[in-house]
Amino acid sequence: MLPTTASKGRGASRSAPPLFGPYLRRIVKWQQMDIEYTFWQMVHLCTSPKVVYQHTKYHKQTKNQWARDDPAFVVILILFLVFATSAYCAAYGESASHAALTITSVVFLHFLFAGIVLATLCWCYLNMSSAMRRENAWLQITIRNEINSLEACCCGMLVTLAGKLLDTVIRCRFLTNSYLREEPNSHVVEQRVEWLYAFDVHCNSFFPAFVILYVVQYFLSPLLVAHGFFPALLSNLLFVVAISYYHYLNFLGYDVLPFLDRTTFFLYPIGLVIILSPLMILIGFNPTRYFLSLYFG
């Protein structure tokens, strides 16, 4: 018996070489990193992010994976975080030990740990919802075909009742067993979001936010830490732009995947930020002063 297309696709995915091993080994091999392309990506993420994700499509066509195989972006971003946090520590810190602790928390907690958690949540949500939509589409086709078969053999009220009963039975089966069955369509290779691609999307989205909240805010901090309405207004605007742009780039990153739909879900937090920001301004909340006091007293 010849294997189906789906079994070939699954077998190929199982036999594919692991991505994390080469990715992690290249972190310590600076000469193998494409630094020029990394800086090109960083500039265009701030100016024209759609161009970056258009190149992601080309990467999928040539490398057969959505995620980067070059850790240069992560390495350079971490170096930028170290330099920027060191500048804050030099301006507002008290001791070398406090600076080392702050830099460590920013790199490993704010960037890496938060990125791993967010990437994992997005990866789980997108793959689970994609599997449910595929199952639901197959069930709808099955229901329609079975009802048409009944209509060809029977007629009248008996067909209607049988069709409704079959509809109920198959939908109950879907609700109770949607994750315990094999892919029903034997001619379609299952497509899933790669975890490393989800982490790439976080890194891409994080960089413009880093530019706004670490670089621009640093130079404006003498004005932003002052008391009054205008510093609070300007500080809130910086955070609104940074957070909104982060979620917009999240949307672009997942919207480029052709097997996903309803990716506008990633734009919803922008609405929440826009709704809450006037309230924060009216009560005089200054996020710059809050975070600087949190880290530097």
UniProtKB/TrEMBL annotation:
It is found in: Membrane. Keywords: Membrane, Transmembrane, Transmembrane helix. One of its GO terms (cellular component) is membrane. It is a multi-pass membrane protein. The keyword rRNA-binding does not apply. InterPro entries: UNC-50 (IPR007881). It holds the Pfam family UNC-50. The chain crosses the membrane at residues 72-93, 99-126, 195-216, 223-246, 266-285. PANTHER family: PROTEIN UNC-50 HOMOLOG (PTHR12841:SF6). Belongs to the unc-50 family. This is Protein unc-50. It comes from Zea mays. The gene is DDB_G0292320.
